[in-house]
């Protein structure tokens, strides 16, 4: 059984095909500019999301809403994520 590496449920061959089409459509000289623009856009989106989260938390704290439950939920989710990664890591090593 051959195990292929995947990224976001896309195999290596599919990524290569997508890159080939991107080079054919945009040209090799335009790809770095496109990647730079996408990176800036993703950073802007992340910053905006963090600003919204901070504003919501600040407003909730000003109005006396208990925000400690979100921290508890995040800690529990992190624990589950670690346990799942430990389990899937051992499964991946067996193949």
UniProtKB/TrEMBL annotation:
Pfam families: TatA_B_E
Topology term for the membrane: Single-pass membrane protein
Subcellular location: Cell membrane
Keywords, alphabetical: Cell membrane, Membrane, Protein transport, Translocation, Transmembrane, Transmembrane helix, Transport
Predominant location category: membrane
Membrane-spanning intervals of the chain: 6-28
Gene3D superfamilies referenced in this protein's UniProt entry, alphabetically: 1.20.5.3310
This protein's record includes keyword Transport: yes
Record carries keyword Transmembrane: yes
Highest rank taxon of the organism: Bacteria
InterPro entries, alphabetized: TatA/B/E (IPR003369), TatA/E (IPR006312)
Subunit organization: Forms a complex with TatC.
Protein function: Part of the twin-arginine translocation (Tat) system that transports large folded proteins containing a characteristic twin-arginine motif in their signal peptide across membranes. TatA could form the protein-conducting channel of the Tat system.
Family: Belongs to the TatA/E family.
Protein name: Sec-independent protein translocase protein TatA
Organism: Hyunsoonleella rubra
């Amino acid at each position: 059984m051959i195990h292929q590496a995947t990224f976001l449920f896309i195999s290596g061959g599919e990524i290569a095909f997508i890159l080939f089409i991107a080079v054919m459509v945009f040209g090799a000289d335009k790809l770095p500019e496109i990647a730079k623009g996408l990176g800036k856009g993703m950073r802007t989106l992340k910053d905006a999301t963090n600003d919204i989260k901070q504003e919501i938390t600040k407003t909730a704290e000003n109005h006396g809403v208990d925000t400690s439950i979100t921290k508890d939920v995040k800690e529990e989710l992190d624990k589950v994520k670690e346990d799942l990664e430990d389990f899937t890591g051992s499964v991946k090593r067996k193949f």
